[in-house]
Amino acid sequence: MTDQKIETSNEQVLQEGDPNTTGHVWDGIKEFDNPMPRWWLWTFYACIVWGIGYTIAYPAWPLINGATAGLLGYSTRAEVAADIAEVDAANAPILARMEEVALGDITPDANPDLYAYAVQGGAAIFASWCSQCHGSGAAGVQASGYPNLLDDDWLWGGTIDDIHLTISHGIRNEDDPNAHYSEMTAFDEILTNDEIASVVQYVRNMSGQEAEATLASAGEEVFLNNCAACHTDQGTGDQFLGAPNLTDAIWLYGGSEEAIEYTVRYSRFGVMPPWSADASDAGRLSEAEVRAVAVYVHSLGGGE
Q1: How far apart are CA 165 and CA 276, in angstroms?
Q2: Which of 56, 211, 218, 223 is least crowded, fewest Cβ atoms below 10 Å from its Cβ?
Q3: Domains of the chain
Q4: Which ranges of the chain would DSSP assign to H, the alpha helix?
């Protein structure tokens, strides 16, 4: 470098040997127009060539009804399908046992490995298909009428076989002729307002809640004449009919005066879909999967 200065056409003063400028000046600072390093340029060009080659070899360019397949014919869907098939093949023996062994024998003592598989597999199935209604912890959603699966109060029975039947066929659905079915009468146009008010207080008193004594006493006759046929004279319910026990503190739609009155007036009609593909065309789960989720639900501590 020398001290000799060169005047450029734009009157910018540069040192001899300095590169040209872009012509941009900020607060007197001139921007040099340095060329990119050769190694960077060749790397950039190589990436372009590699990118073009990749789009030719692999699926890349979107079309109207799909995308270019690529010369190598690679498919991520096919790769995933192969992985799933590999897992299914590895699980085939234990899935066969899951269908062959009696439900009552899938226990930690009788078949510990099968039980462990059922609980773990059933938990995954529950999270995918059941938690949307019953909650991730299986505690249900009372306001929406989704039952708590952790307690011992089961409308249609809580044995492992009962749970399996309910999962397989569902409740009050139109897809499976073997679904549990019952229908509560809506008493809004059958009973007077006074009769409804009295039977509401009687039911609250029956379940140990605070109730107006005079109305509750009058509601006993209303209950025996209109409700006992399904709920029994004592109000303990009937699992064969799916009629709930009214003497405990467990309520599917809530036990407040407003909730009970709504139920008496307009009834309730909860629906559960069938899940067994063997039981209905609408089913989504194999028999082994239904059994696994039944064992899982039973293992949560509820049921019988």
Answers
A1: 9
A2: 56
A3: 78-180+272-299 (1.10.760.10), 193-266 (1.10.760.10)
A4: 38-57, 76-100, 112-129, 131-134, 160-169, 193-206, 213-226, 228-231, 257-266, 287-299
Strands 13-15 and 5-7: antiparallel
Q: pLDDT tens, 226-244?
A: 999 999 999 999 999 999 9
Residue 281: both structure tokens together: 């065309």
* Residue 203 token pair: 């039911």
Nearby residues of 104 by Cβ (< 8 Å), 6 or more positions away: 160, 161
CB atoms within 10 A of CB 77: 8
> pLDDT for 9-66, tens place per residue?
445 566 777 778 887 887 777 888 888 899 999 999 999 999 999 999 999 899 888 8
Tokens of 106: 């899938």
